[in-house]
Amino acid sequence: MSSPSLKLDDKSKNPNERLDSPPSKKEKTEVNSSNKDAPNTTKEDSPKKSDPSHDDKKSEHNQDKGEDTKENVEEEKKEETKQDDKDEKQDDKGIPAKEAKKPDPSNPQGIVDMETFGQILEMDEDENDRDFSSGIVYNFYEQAFETFKELDTALKEEDMHTLHTKGHFLKGSSAALGLIKLKQSCEKIQVFGKLQDPKTQKEISKDEALKQVNEALTSAKDEYSEAEGWLKAFYGE
């Protein structure tokens, strides 16, 4: 009796070959379709982890920037304070005031010749009412202020004639009030303006004269501020 024949798939007569055969086109299509529907989990979609070292550098940069800004603000405040101090060292006429304690009106200390200044005071009708002498002094303040401005301009422009004439004018005004030191400096300006040496009366070069005028003018401004301080103290200002 013959055994029943095993029916195989038409596509393969060997069962082993059928089991090991590659997937059909239909099966490939189904696999590809399922892959498309699956979520894409590439490195690009994964959240980026922050680099701790980068964050630290960024924090340090921001901190340094804040410190720089703070230092700039402090520097500006220091400059403003310096400018305020500089402004306070100038009197109401813009002439640098010499740093010194308030002068004693009873002690002229070589600033004022009291014999000469006393002649001005004698013109006052009353010692308690110094209107006349104070008027002369206030007029001198205004004259000195304008003269110093003219001397500064003349020195800048190297105008020797103006240096000579204005030095002579301020010398006379200061001498009338007995302002000893100021008178001497103004006399130097007057003589240097003529291109002469005050001591020898010999002729000097223009460059040397301008150099000496600059020094004498600086001294004159300091001496004026000193004299003005004493006069204001004398009149109770």
Short description:
The chain is mainly α. The chain contains 8 helices and no strands.
Description:
- Residues 129-227 form the HPt domain.
- Mean pLDDT is 76; it is low at 1-21, 25-39 and 41-46.
- The protein has a domain at 114-235: HPT domain (Four Helix Bundle (Hemerythrin (Met), subunit A), Up-down Bundle).
- The chain has 237 residues and is mainly alpha-helical.
- The protein is flat and about 55 Å long.
- The termini are far apart.
- Helices cover 63% and strands 0% of the residues.
- It contains eight helices and no strands.
**Uncertain spans, ≥5 residues at pLDDT below 50?**
1-21, 25-39, 41-46
Distance between the termini: 153 Å
- CATH topology-level fold name of the domain at 114-235: Four Helix Bundle (Hemerythrin (Met), subunit A)
Total number of beta strands: 0
Shape: flat
List SSEs in N-to-C order.
HHHHHHHH
Taking all residues together, what is the mean pLDDT?
A: 76
Number of helices: 8
Could you give a short account of the major beta sheet?
Answer: none
Structural class: mainly alpha
Protein name: Histidine-phosphotransfer domain, HPT domain-containing protein
InterPro entries: AHP1-5/YPD1 (IPR045871), HPT_dom_sf (IPR036641), Sig_transdc_His_kin_Hpt_dom (IPR008207)
Biased composition (Basic and acidic residues): 7-30, 42-104
Region (Disordered): 1-115
